Fold:
Amino acid sequence: MSDPLVRALQELLGPQRVLATRGELLVYECDGLTQFKSAPRCAVLPHSTEDVQAILHLLHRERTPFVARGAGTGLSGGAIAQRDAVLIELSRMKQILEIDPVDRIARVEVGVVNAELSKAVKPYGLFYAPDPSSQTACTLGGNAAENSGGPHCLKYGNTTRHMLALEVVLPDGTRETLGDPFAGSAGYDLRGLFIGSEGTLGIATEITVRLCPQPESVVTLLAAFETLDAACRAVSDLIARGVQASAIEILDQRTIDAVESSVFRAGYPRNAGAVLLVELDGPAIETAEDAERVEAIARANHAILLQRAADEEQRMKLWKGRKGAFGAMGRVAPDLYVQDAVVPRTRLPEVVRGIGEICDKYRLRLANVFHAGEGNLHPNIAYDGTRAEEVERVHEAGREIFELCISVGGSLSGEHGIGLEKREFMHLLYSPEDLATFCRVREAFDPLRLANPEKVLPVHACLELRSALPSGERGTR
Amino acid sequence: MSPANRLAPQSAEEVAALLRDAAAQQLPIVARGGGTHCAAQPAVHARAATLELRGLSKVLAYDPGDLTIAVEAGCTLAELEHVLAENEHELALDAEDPERATIGGLLAADFPTRAGAVGRALRDQVLGTRVAQVDGTLTRSGGRVVKNVTGYDLEKLFVGSRGTLAVLVEVALRVHPRPPARAIVAAACASFEEAHALVLRWRDPQPAQLDALDGEAARRALGDLPAPLADARWLVLASWRGTERVVAAHAERALSAASALGGRAQRLEGELAHRAHAFDRAPRRALGVADARDAGEPGLVLALAGRPSQAPKVEQILAHALERSGCTTSARRYADGAGARLRACFATAPSRERFAALLDALASVPLTTAARVHLESAPSALHEELRAKHFLALRPPCGGLAAMRRVRAAFDPHGLLSPGAWPELDGAEPEREASSPSETRA
Ligand SMILES: Cc1cc2nc3c(=O)[nH]c(=O)nc-3n(C[C@H](O)[C@H](O)[C@H](O)COP(=O)(O)OP(=O)(O)OC[C@H]3O[C@@H](n4cnc5c(N)ncnc54)[C@H](O)[C@@H]3O)c2cc1C
Structure:
């Protein structure tokens, strides 16, 4: 091993916790977004906050960039490290440090897998609310970095509402506690800034989360519609009428097909153009009232089938299809491109129609499965990554979809983050001055731009945006 | 621009232009909404110009079907409530004086709200912001959709920044359907421990209000209480909102939970319910603590915030400190929610000496109970004491001070915006004039 940096890291952590051979680094070439691939200079496996501090001290001294990685399930290329960067894998830091059922908090290391936490607190009648569909694999550190969502974030809110304090190591190796679970505000909410910053401000090592009481009752409803359009209209109505569901999800016909032909079979009607999955939770008397309202709205929008899960088993089955939808679609095509734009819920029907037209125009196979209640779309485009011409069409369609969503007042990402994938589109939403502000904030934490340097902000944003845009990139709005 | 200038811009662009001019002359600028924020305020810088934002009061986009609204920052809460009432909508924002409090001021001050106390934190209500920066640029972050992770969450930074980073000119907020009915229940408890146990029981299902008041506070807020509640040492109040059927069921359940714990409880109706609701809307007023507006001098409210499980211990510490310092509260109040808050309210502020003794006693609060002392409001006569004892300070265990300073410098390198609002975050200590009580800001 001739790389002196690798040797220095090995001295710091011991040889087993530094991976540097091609074979060892293969798994780190990409995350859940497979379009981009690049192996890091090496990967290190810290076991503690002190380890992370020591690593960042060293890297800071050596002016070496680094990229944090949890489980690598991210869908925007956030955990990919370019060749000169060190990848810091945090999945070994997976201890649950404290559970307090009275104060309803837990303190965890960042490598704890999302679903493991809910499992651990279940005996106390509590759960951790944000539930990304990847929850059996993704880490809470990754959730913090992406401000992840999930079906039930409609009612409970994204990750930022549930993480009360963070222990972080800044790019120069200093350690800070951001936020305080109980003490109220004191100064700027750096906790809130750090959450969703996609590993560009430092590395989180410990998190204090809020735990929620398990609801007394849960009602899960399935409504099937002849068309996707009708399902979208039902969602717009549910929101406008103030129905407070905990989750409102849509799966379209292609997704239903994929799910029903897979191990995730949920019993969705194959003849439907779309199904709507609505969940209500809370006191039984409340969910019973709301369920009737949901059914009435579905009927008014010409639902062709209405079904209430009779027991926990049926409920789990209905969700199995939704949570397994990505996996099921993985079978249909060699590659899958998942978008994540958000639009006002009043515009859902027209935007979903528009996305269908864009994909038709580019002769692409589109399937929709999304957090409809929040207007958070996930158009899934199936393609074959070995065919350059097809990849190009996917790219073009992707850009048009973003433009459509932004034209109705939407946004680029609801939960997957910008990462590598969407940074070239940031200009569609933000002015050069907006982006320059983001850059200044980033520099307040990381003046040398060592933390996940290639992500979130357009490549030259920080250097040149104030004067002029680099050629080839988009102008201002 | 003369120092005494009160500037009254009518648009975001005018705000930006005024900031640019002021910055060119190195003049400090203090943004002001309705002037309702009565927390301990630092003295306003001698040369500071005041930027009055009431002129920015347009509703920019209200999308009832999407449950979102975008407004200019100078809109008052009452103006917005009026617009939203049309569709039976509301905000999870509240203020004692909604006719004066502006949206921008409420967010910049991040004063504890009643919505925040029951799980709807102010900072989570903001979907996007447009701000005027000190160099006169106007920038946005976030958007108008209810879910968004595009770019850094600068909205979180601006909430609670007390105008030290940039001037909020537009804000997009979540809107909530207004439940049609409310039920309020009250229980008499013989001790704080008993009240605390009941508060923990009544946390589920999530109430819209959950408060415990000591006997004196209860009498001030509610007047004469009916027999079963009359001799309460502590009175626990909770309300639920929803449809008539749902809230009636919640109230029933709350009553049986209370009696299982040995408390005497009843649902409040008529005039009593009305007063309990008025207390919820404006607790300081109901408890007889003066607003800055009333006498020109705000009353004194200290809050100890910490873990709910530790509240009985914290209550003992407070009682002890009060006794040792010879300070007498007019009301004590305990609220659970985003952390527990035990408040000591003084209709008449104690003398400087006693107040100093109280602060000393509280400064020795062991950190193991993880309680932090907040000053929610104080008359100007006590400001000196507070400053001397660093009570305006961001004290440990507050983390990230160095990073906060760098963030401040990233937005406002010369410390021209609201200098003194967070003294620890200012660069060079600016010269001050004596504190002027009427210059509180929202
Ligand atoms: C099948 C599937 C379904 C999904 N469903 C959802 C969903 O419903 N909702 C949703 O929001 N997402 C979803 N995702 C995306 C992904 O699971 C989330 O973004 C998740 O939070 C990533 O966690 P991770 O541990 O895999 O992070 P990684 O992918 O390893 O990293 C993600 C980003 O976080 C940074 N990072 C990781 N750990 C830290 C840390 N400790 N400190 C600082 N930065 C860090 C990385 O540098 C990177 O930028 C899904 C993904 C898949 C594959």
